[in-house]
Amino acid sequence: MALGIKSGDQVEVISGGYKGAVGRVLTTFPKKGQAIVEGINLCKRHTKAKSQRQPGGRIEKERPIALCKLMVLDAKTGRGTRFENAIVGGRKVRKSKATGNEI
User: Fold this and answer.
1) Do residues 63 and 36 lie in contact, with contact meaning Cβ atoms separated by under 8 Å?
2) From CA 49, how far away is CA 39, in angstroms rounded?
3) CATH no. for residue 42?
4) pTM for this prediction
5) Residue at 48 is within a domain
6) Alpha-carbon distance 7 to 65, whole Å?
7) Span 24-81, pLDDT tens digits
8) Number of structural domains, the chain?
9) 44 lies in which domain range?
């Protein structure tokens, strides 16, 4: 599967319980077709206290979400957009299909 979404991209969730939410991609898993997005798909993890410095309790952490549910944000419009790979000035860039701007 060709990855179009990279770490550090701003993305919008287009389906599911977090539909419409926006976040930054922290990590991608190309073989699984998933990504971890900041503030999206949160779950509570119960941890046992290891020492006084690391107390136990419930920790909220992000879980992976399928790439097919994410769209890259266009900086100009602030909405999710499809994109294409193009060569501009001898370098490969991603361009928005809607506005033609670099992502």
Assistant:
1) yes
2) 25
3) 2.30.30.30
4) 0.82
5) yes
6) 14
7) 999 999 999 999 999 999 999 999 998 888 888 999 999 999 999 999 998 888 888 8
8) 1
9) 10-76
Report residue 72 as tokens. Answer: 């890259």
Distance, CA of 86 to CA of 3 (rounded, Å): 15
Whole-number Å distance between alpha carbons of 61 and 72? 22
Q: Amino acid identity of 41? A: N
Assigned domain for 4 exists: no
- Residue 55: what residue type? P
